[in-house]
Request: fold
Amino acid sequence: MKLSTIIRTAVVALFSYLFLDYIGSTDETSAFTETPWTWLVLIILVIFYVAGDVSVQALNNVLYHSLSADKQEVYDRNIASAKAKRNQWFKNIYNKLVGSKPIEQEGEIVLDHNYDGIQELDNNLPPWWVYGFYATILFAVVYMARYHIFDGINQDEEYVVAQAIAQQEIEEYKKTAKDLVDVNTVEYLTDASDLKAGEMIFSGNCVACHKVDGGGGIGPNLTDDHWILGGGIKNVFNTISEGGRAGKGMVAWKSDLKPVEMAQVASYVLSLHGTNPPDAKAAEGEIWLDPNAPVEQVEVKVIDSTQVEVLIEDQPVTGDVVNTKE
Ligand code: HEC
Reply:
């Protein structure tokens, strides 16, 4: 196979790849990972191309050999001159972009600095460089107009927009993929249907030790402010999933319950909080304070460079600035 055939084939393969990828891919995944038979399509395309290329060459060969000797000569000459023309075209473009004078004409641009026989040429700036420079000027003008005159959105705003879109997509995704919750993503489910499902799971698996009302028996009271293993949806989910301390009787439920079921029963457990059932077990463990609960609203106002006013829930407190630089 000739080198030119190999190069052409590679180019065709590359463009077919990009084309198939372009038409078949979604935002996230490439067509080639999503539907692996796209590779087959690509391979077939390339095989067809090679077959076509090879047959055209064979046909050329046959026709060439059917020519008489002097006609073959003419043909060879035509091919050679076409090739030379093409090479000349590339050479011209290259010379234009580099813009240097051929060595024979250097006499025209030599400066009359002469340092011990070392002379200097007054070359023009290479046109490729000059065009690049003009392009940056054009870019600057467009940029300035877009962002400083017409207020195009800047990177910070782009980031906020992208975040908002991503957030929305996560919400959508969560709706369709409830089963994917784990201890890091679990949230307190408030839907009546989820709580109902949680209640069913609770009465099916947990009441023997925690009682129907969650007041506690073998297991601790689940309705008070005190938690042995931590309160809040994440800790409770984790306890249900991984079990309690060794030997206490609370097993890990992750092999019996699906993640979504653990999230439902954890939410149900939390919904029992504060119900004060009769004959509840005494509190065990620590009072749980949610570290993510909203904190007091603190607002800092600068009066001058040495005085600030701190507003804690609208109660002003003034104080000196502590200089942290010293
Ligand atoms: C065999 C008895 C038993 C069963 C069944 C049981 N638990 Fe427990 N549970 C316990 C014990 C005992 C503890 C205390 C564990 C410890 O001290 O480490 C506990 C602790 C807990 C805690 C943590 C309480 C705290 O104060 O931190 C939660 C939440 C909990 N169980 C939920 C459930 C749920 C939901 C189920 C049903 C899926 C369930 N348990 C089934 C015995 C049980």
Observations:
- Strands lie at 110-115, 118-121, 226-227, 286-287, 298-304, 307-312, 315-320.
- The CA atoms of residues 110 and 276 lie 100 Å apart.
- The radius of gyration is 39 Å.
- Residues 295-319 form one domain.
